[in-house]
Specification:
By secondary structure, the chain is α/β, with parallel strands linked by helices. 38% of the residues lie in helices and 20% in strands. The chain has 19 helices and 22 strands. It has a six-stranded parallel beta sheet, with helices on both faces. Strands 13-12-11-14-15-16 form a six-stranded parallel beta sheet. The longest helix has 38 residues, at 77-114.
């Protein structure tokens, strides 16, 4: 038998005191009951008439209401003493009770501020990781949810909950129909994931850009979900990897949940496409972001039995991109025109919001305006000057090499020596120059042979410092263009979207902000994981890609034409009409997904944007 000591009693009391508010209140009331019972017992021996329970009741009233003592009977000294003791005990009891409740309330508020409670939401999106990219992702989710009520996004970060909420409020003051909940904790521990109610979410976005951290979080997610019932069986984790060697490990760790984007490859392909066709970056941003028109998968029973060619003109305010088969879970962008739409198919369309499309009652086109040029009459040189070196440059050039004519010259200039590329190019001829990028040097480099300029960012430098150097180069380039009258297109890769506004005065043709585009793609895939193959197809040289081709290859120039006619003309070439590029007040103007009943007059210098297999 264990020996009872005062120290053990004190230890047990100390442990009890740490149990929380409710047990302490229970203990206080138990002590109160004992004290008023003892007082009532002694009071019953007084000369004041009444039963034992009457005296307990009097003791309780004096304990709860100190003012009751003014009405105490004075006929017996013992009764007065007992009621006075009861009143003083009541003052102590009330003070302790208020202190316990106040402390408990403060602890509860503190816990809420720390973000440690479990989120009681369903159909929400979870973002794991808090950094500067969070604002783009949240803005896109807010836009995507704008036509739905009571949507929720849960953010799990290692920062303080209040700090995250203040930062989000400063960047996104209006979240419209979406409420944002922040939770604090380790990003890969089970109790943190439980707080986010992952099993009842519809998508998870891993907002980390260190491959090791991403793989660790994916492992934690898949392990946490084992044995749990998912609200959505198609729950996915969307993540970005920086190194291609880590993609397989992340995919294996994901066990079918993970959708992995290879960031460098995606950004490199976008830069390459933008360099070959200026204005395509704007089209891609339009496709990937939720503000404006974006891609959706829609069930349209009235299309069953129609050929893909026929579906292209079935929508007045939407552009058809492809077909998704729900049975085989495959998506085909720009399939053969004679492909028949079945009951198992969904149509992939570019529209303002999901379900916002309108079907055409009687689509017609003007046969007399269609010009059936089989090949492009456009001649374009792509000789390029690249300013700065980048880890992505080999990937950019490898993709660029697939779309240009043989003998295309590429000159790379940087202040540090440039290593030889391990890739063999079939069409481009590369030369490198090591020198300082001063105004005088740029004047010498900008010969008449140069058509395009690519200004790259240095990922190893601080983002602000890297963008500042790029802004200086852009000022030099536009000054040279104004003085010499030389014409060249500039594509600029920057790290921060805030700096794009500063660069606008340099009249840059295209901006590519890699992290921003990757965040847009992540959000699109999180909303619909089936869209990933379509995005990959758009960026891949195999299959169909976005092209800009002369408008005169499709319709007669300088004649008003509607977009039903342009859609039909492109379809006869096994292409999909997406939009057009023209010039307004001397500046390039890109329009995508125009209303098909509207009309436009295109000149010989204007271009149409199409999805096609080749130029």
């Amino acid at each position: 038998m264990k020996k009872f000591t005062l120290k053990k009693l004190r230890y047990k009391f100390d442990r009890f005191m740490t149990k929380g508010t409710i047990p302490l209140i229970g203990l206080l009331f138990a002590v109160c009951l004992i004290v008023i019972s003892i007082i009532g017992l002694f009071s019953s021996f007084s000369k004041v008439e009444g039963s034992f329970f009457y005296h307990i009741w009097e003791s309780l009233l004096h304990t709860l209401d100190p003012g009751t003592i003014s009405g105490t009977s004075t006929e017996d000294t013992l009764f007065i003493v007992m009621m006075t003791i009861s009143t003083f005990f009541g003052l102590i009891f009330t003070s302790i009770l208020i202190g316990i409740i106040s402390t408990g309330f403060e602890e509860k508020l503190s816990n809420l501020r720390k973000g440690t409670s479990v989120v009681q939401e369903e159909n929400h999106t979870v973002i794991i990781g808090f950094n500067d990219n969070i604002y783009t992702i949240l803005s896109e989710l807010v836009e995507a949810n704008s036509n739905h009520k009571n949507m929720c996004v849960v953010v799990l970060g290692e920062q303080d909950k209040t700090e995250m909420e203040d930062a989000i409020s400063a960047h996104i003051p209006d979240t419209r129909t979406t409420h944002i909940v922040c939770r604090s904790g380790s990003l890969h521990e089970f109790h943190s994931l439980e707080r986010c109610n992952i099993e009842n979410s519809r998508a998870v976005i891993i907002n980390k850009y260190d491959d090791a951290d991403v793989i660790k979080i994916i492992l934690a997610l898949t392990t946490y979900l084992k044995g749990k019932t998912l609200l959505h069986e198609d729950l996915s984790f969307t993540a970005v990897m920086q190194d291609s060697e880590n993609i397989e490990a992340a995919t294996i760790a994901g066990e079918g949940y993970a959708e992995i984007i290879f960031a460098k490859d995606a950004i490199s392909r976008i830069i390459a496409h933008t360099c070959r066709e200026h204005g395509l970056s704007e089209v891609m941003v339009e496709l990937f972001q939720f503000d404006g028109d974006e891609l959706y998968f829609e069930d349209v029973p009235s299309l069953v039995g129609k050929t893909f060619h026929e579906t292209l003109s079935c929508f007045t305010d939407a552009t058809v991109f492809g077909i998704y088969n729900k049975k085989t879970h495959t998506v085909k962008m720009n399939p053969p025109m004679d492909t028949v739409f079945t009951e198992d198919d969904q149509i992939v369309i570019m529209e303002e919001d999901d379900g916002s499309f309108h079907l055409s009652d009687n689509p017609t086109f003007d046969e007399s305006l269609i010009f059936d040029a089989k090949k492009s009459t456009r001649t374009k040189r792509n000789n390029m000057l690249i300013l700065g070196n980048s880890e992505k440059l080999p990937l950019v050039l490898a993709e660029f090499d697939n779309y240009v004519n043989k003998g295309t010259k590429v000159i790379i200039v940087d202040e540090s020596p440039i290593d030889d590329f391990a890739i063999e190019f079939k069409n481009i001829e590369i030369s490198t120059i090591t020198c300082s990028l001063t105004h005088k040097t740029l004047e010498q480099l900008l010969t008449d042979e140069i058509d395009n300029i690519l200004v790259t960012c240095d990922e190893n430098e601080d983002a602000e410092h890297s963008d500042s150097k790029i802004l200086q180069l852009l000022i030099f380039l536009r000054n040279i263009a104004d003085k010499t009258g030389k014409e060249f297109a500039i594509t600029t890769e920057m790290q921060k979207s805030d700096n794009q506004r500063l660069a606008a005065k340099a009249r840059v043709d295209d901006f590519v902000i890699g992290s921003n585009l990757v965040n847009l793609m992540m959000t699109q895939i999180a909303e619909n994981r089936n869209i990933k193959p379509l995005i990959e197809d758009l960026l891949d040289e195999d299959g169909s890609e976005l092209y800009m081709k002369p408008a005169v290859n499709y319709v007669k120039p300088d004649v008003e034409v509607d977009f039903y006619t342009l859609t039909e003309s492109a379809a006869r070439k096994n292409e999909i009409f997406v939009g057009y590029k023209t010039t307004v007040d001397g500046l390039p103007h890109v329009v995508t997904n125009p209303h098909k009943s509207e009309k436009v007059t295109l000149s010989e210098n204007d271009l149409v944007i199409v999805i096609a297999e080749d130029l």
